[in-house]
C-alpha cells in the first residue's frame, strides 16, 4: 500500500481491464502529466511523499551497511573489516581473547534481542582465505582469470546481439500492426478495436525490449583487465610470496589481501562446516568450506547422530576404546575439533544414560537362560571365589561372553548338577 499509487489518490491504471493495465514504464519524474486527488485517498499527498522519502533514506542506510568496508584495524585478524555474516548480511566484528580471536555477529542480538548469529574461529578462516589468495595469484590462475574475462565479454556481446534482434523483430511487428490498423475500414468497429489492441500490445512489447537493451548497454560487465606488465609482476610475486608469507608483518599481509579481496561472507552450518564465499575485485566469487570448532553440540542434531552411533556400537558389546576408534574412523569429530577421547565418550554415555552390557548385567538386565557367577554360586552352594578359582585352574572350562565380557553360565539344572559333582570330587572338570 505504501509503494503503490492508490493511497494518495492517483490512479495507476489507464484503462481498467486492459492486458497492460497498471504497468509503469517510467519513473514518476518523467511523467508528462500527474492528476492528484482523483478520488478519495487513504493518506494525503504530502504524507505519501514523506513516506517515500523515508523509505529511500532507509534503503540508502541499509545499502551502506551491507556494502561498506571497514578499515583494517590493528590485531592478528587479517580479514577485519572484510568479513560479513552469511545469515543476516551485517558486518562481523573481531573479538580477541588471550592469543585467540573470533569473528562474531551480534547485530540481531543487540537490536532485536535475538540469539547471536555466529561465533567463528578466526584463525581457521584466515588460513583458508590466505590459501585461496596465494592460489589466485599463481601464474596459471592469472591466465585463467584473463580467459574468464574474455568469455564474460563475449557472452555480454552475444546478449546484446540477441536483444538487438528482439528489438528489430518487435519493431517490425509493431509497424505491421500499425499498417493493418490504418488499412481497416473505419465502419467495421469490432475489427478496428481488435487491431488497435494488437498495435498497442506490440508497442508495449517493443518499448519493454528497448528498455532492457538500454539497461544492458548502460550496465556493462565489470571486467578485470590484466596487462602484460601486471601479468609479469603477478607471476613473479606468485612464485615467491608463498615462501615468504610467514615472514611478512601483519600489516603487510592485510594490505596484500586487500589488493584482490573485497569481501568474505561466512555461513556456518550445524555440522561446524563454514561456507566461505570470497569476493574478488571485478566481481568474481570463490566458494570453499572450512571446519571450525563449535562451543557446544549438546542436544543438537549432530550430537544426536553421534549418540545414535554410540548406542549402535554399545548394543554390539563394543568397549569404550572400540567405540572411540569407530567414531574417529567414520569421520565424526567433537565440537571443538580434533578427535574423540575416552572422556568425551564417557560424558556422552552418562548424559544419555547409555550403559555398557556389563553394567546393565550388574543392574539385573541379563539375557534369558543365562546366569552370572554370583547366581550360579548361590545355586551350587559355594562362594563365587570358588568358581573363579576352578576356572583359573582349568577345572571349569568356560569362555567369557562376547557381548557382555564376563562369564555367563547356562540357567539349567544340568549345569548346577555338574558343578555340584565337581564340588564333591566326582568328576575332574566340567565344560560349558
Describe the fold and architecture.
By secondary structure, the chain is α+β, with helices and mostly antiparallel strands. Among the domains are: 11-67, no CATH class; 240-291, OB fold (Dihydrolipoamide Acetyltransferase, E2P) (Beta Barrel), CATH 2.40.50; 301-354, no CATH class; 366-431, Multidrug-efflux Transporter Regulator, Chain: A, Domain 2, CATH 1.10.1660.10. It is 49% helix and 11% strand. The chain contains 14 helices and 11 strands. The strands form 4 sheets. It has a 4-stranded mixed sheet with strand order 1-5-6-7, covered by helices on one side. A 3-stranded antiparallel sheet has the order 2-3-4. Strand 5 and strand 6 form a beta hairpin. Helix 8 packs across helix 9 (320-329). The chain is elongated, with a radius of gyration of 39 Å. The protein starts with 44 loop residues before the first helix and ends with a strand. The mean pLDDT is 78.
Amino acid at each position: 500500500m505504501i509503494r503503490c499509487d492508490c493511497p494518495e489518490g492517483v490512479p495507476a491504471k489507464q484503462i481498467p481491464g486492459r492486458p497492460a493495465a497498471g504497468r509503469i514504464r517510467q519513473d514518476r519524474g518523467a511523467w508528462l502529466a500527474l492528476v492528484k486527488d482523483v478520488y478519495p485517498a487513504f493518506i494525503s499527498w504530502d504524507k505519501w511523499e514523506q513516506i517515500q522519502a523515508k523509505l529511500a533514506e532507509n534503503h540508502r542506510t541499509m545499502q551502506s551497511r551491507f556494502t561498506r568496508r571497514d578499515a583494517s584495524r590493528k590485531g592478528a585478524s587479517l580479514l577485519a573489516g572484510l568479513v560479513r555474516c552469511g545469515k543476516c548480511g551485517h558486518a562481523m566484528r573481531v573479538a580477541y581473547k588471550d592469543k585467540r580471536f573470533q569473528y562474531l555477529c551480534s547485530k540481531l542480538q543487540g537490536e532485536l534481542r535475538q540469539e547471536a548469529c555466529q561465533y567463528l574461529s578466526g584463525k581457521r578462516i584466515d588460513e583458508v582465505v590466505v590459501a585461496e589468495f596465494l592460489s589466485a595469484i599463481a601464474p596459471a590462475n592469472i591466465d585463467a582469470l584473463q580467459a574468464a574475462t574474455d568469455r564474460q565479454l563475449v557472452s555480454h556481446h552475444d546478449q546484446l546481439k540477441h536483444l538487438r534482434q528482439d528489438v528489430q523483430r518487435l519493431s517490425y511487428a509493431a509497424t505491421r500492426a500499425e499498417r493493418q490498423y490504418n488499412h481497416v475500414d473505419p465502419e467495421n468497429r469490432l475489427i478496428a478495436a481488435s487491431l488497435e489492441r494488437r498495435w498497442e500490445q506490440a508497442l508495449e512489447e517493443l518499448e519493454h525490449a528497448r528498455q532492457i537493451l538500454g539497461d544492458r548497454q548502460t550496465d556493462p560487465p565489470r571486467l578485470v583487465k590484466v596487462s602484460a606488465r601486471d601479468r609479469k609482476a603477478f607471476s613473479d610475486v606468485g612464485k615467491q610470496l608463498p615462501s615468504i608469507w610467514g615472514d611478512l608483518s601483519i600489516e603487510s599481509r592485510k594490505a596484500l589481501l586487500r589488493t584482490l579481496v573485497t569481501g568474505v561472507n561466512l555461513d556456518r552450518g550445524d555440522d561446524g562446516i563454514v561456507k566461505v564465499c570470497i569476493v574478488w575485485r571485478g566481481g568474481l566469487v570463490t566458494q570453499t568450506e572450512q571446519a571450525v570448532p563449535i562451543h557446544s553440540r549438546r542436544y543438537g542434531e549432530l550430537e544426536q547422530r553421534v549418540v545414535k552411533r554410540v548406542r549402535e556400537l554399545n548394543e554390539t558389546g563394543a568397549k569404550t576404546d572400540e567405540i572411540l576408534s569407530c567414531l574417529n574412523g567414520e569421520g565424526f569429530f567433537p565440537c571443538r575439533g580434533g578427535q574423540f577421547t575416552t572422556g568425551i565418550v564417557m560424558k556422552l554415555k552418562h548424559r544419555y544414560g547409555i550403559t555398557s552390557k556389563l553394567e546393565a548385567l550388574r543392574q539385573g538386565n541379563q539375557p534369558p537362560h543365562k546366569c552370572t557367577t554370583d547366581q550360579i554360586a548361590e545355586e551350587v552352594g559355594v562362594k563365587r571365589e570358588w568358581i573363579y578359582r576352578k576356572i583359573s585352574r582349568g577345572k571349569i572350562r568356560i569362555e567369557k561372553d562376547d557381548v557382555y565380557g564376563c562369564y555367563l553360565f547356562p540357567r539349567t539344572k544340568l549345569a548346577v548338577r555338574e558343578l555340584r559333582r565337581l564340588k564333591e570330587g566326582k568328576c575332574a572338570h566340567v565344560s560349558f
